[in-house]
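Researcher: Hi, I'm a grad student and pretty new to this. My advisor asked me to get structures for two proteins we've been looking at. I'm not sure of the right format, so I'll just paste the first sequence and hope you can take it from there.
Model: That works fine. Here's the first sequence with its C-alpha cells right after it:
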Amino acid sequence: MATAGRMEPEPRGRDGDGNGRVADLQARLAEAQDLRLRALAELDNLRERSAARARSAADEARAQVARQWLPVIDDLERALEHAEADPAAIIEGIQAVRDEALSVLVKLGFARRDDTGVVFDPTRHHAVASKADPDAPPGTVVEVVQPAYGDGDHQLRPAQVVVAEAD
C-alpha cells in the first residue's frame, strides 16, 4: 500500500518470487534502451542523408548558374580574338555581351533596375552623395552611380545613388 510520500513494495504473488518481476522489468528496460539507441542512430543517418542532399542540391544549383554564364564567357573570348578589328565593331560586340549578361541575370530573377527619378528608399538604395537639383524634388534619386539588380527579398545589391537635396 502507498502512504503519503512513500511507496511500499507490491505484495508478492503466491509463489513468493519477486525475482521474476525484476527480471521482466530489466528485460523491458534493456529493450527500451536498445530502441532508443536505434532511434538515435537512425536520426544521425537521417541528418547525414539530409546534409548530403543539401550539398548535392547546392552543387547542382551552382552548376546551373555557371552553365548560364558560359555563353557570356564564349562571347568575351571571341571579342578578344578580334581586338585588332574596327573599334566600332568591338564596342558593338561588348554591348552585345553586356546585353547577354543582363539577360542571364533576368533569367535568374535579378533584373537590372533603373531607379532614376524614384523616391530614395534605404532598403533599395545606398546614397553615395547628394546634390542640389532644381528640377527634382528633394529626396529623389537624380543619378544612379551603380545600378541595383533584383528587387525586394531577391535583391543582389542596392543601387548606389545620388539624391536630390533641398535648396
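Researcher: Oh nice, that was easy. Here's the second one.
Model: And its structure:
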Amino acid sequence: MNTGFSAAPTPWRASAAQVLVNDLAAPELNSADLHHLQRVLRLRVGDHVCATDGVGGWRICAFLGSEQLEELSEQHQEPPSEYEVTVGFALVKGERPELIVQKLTELGVEHIWPFISHRSVVRWDAEKAEKQLERLRRVVHESCAQSRRLWIPKVGYPCAPDQIPGAKGLARFDQVRSQGAVLAQMGGRALQQSDHTVLIGPEGGWDQTESAGAICVGLGQHVLRAETAAITAGVLLTALRAGFPRESLR
C-alpha cells in the first residue's frame, strides 16, 4: 500500500520508535505496541517506525494509526556481533532480575543466564521459573525497542537433558560453569577480551566448591551488589569487544 508518505526514511536508530514484528514482508503491530505508540509515545500518522524481526532484519515503515504499517524502505539485515558475550547471575530478590536483564539488553549482551548456586537464597520452582523467565523475556523485548537493538538476546540457559524439571531456561551453577566461564570475585585478574562469559555469584559469595580451580576476575575496587556486578560485567565485556581501552579495574 502507498499512502504518499516520504520514501526517504530515516536510519533505524533515528526513527520515532522501534517495534518487533512477526513478518517484515507484511509488518503489523500487536495490540500492546499499537497502544504504546498511540498512547505513550503519542506518534502521529506518518511518523517513521523501525520494524524488526529480532534477528537482525529491519525496515523503516510509516505509522498509520492502526495495526498496519506502511513499508517505506527495503528490508535490511544487520550482521551479528563477531563474537557473543554472556553474563550469568545467581538469582536475586525482588525486581532486581528485571533491572539486570534490562541493562544487559541495552548494553548489547547476547546471552543472559539466571542460575541457582549453592548459596542462592532465591530459588524458583519449576512453575515460578517459567513465569519469571517469560517476564524477563518481555523486559528484553521492551529494552530492545527502547535501545534500538535489532538482535534480541536470549534469556535463559539452553535446554539440557539434566535441567531442572519443567524449568525451561533456568540452570544450575555447574551447567553454566562448564561453558568456559570466569567467575567475578574480588582480587581476581583483569577481565580480558578472550573472556566471553562472566558469572556473578550470590550476595553471600561463591561456595568454595564452586570457586575451586576457577578463573576469577575482578570488576572493581569495592564489593559490588549482585545487580551492580552483573551490569558492570556487561559494560566491560561489550567495551572490550568494541575495542575500548582494555585496562580493567581490579
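Researcher: Is there anything I should tell my advisor about the second?
Model: You could mention this: The first helix runs from residue 31 to 40.
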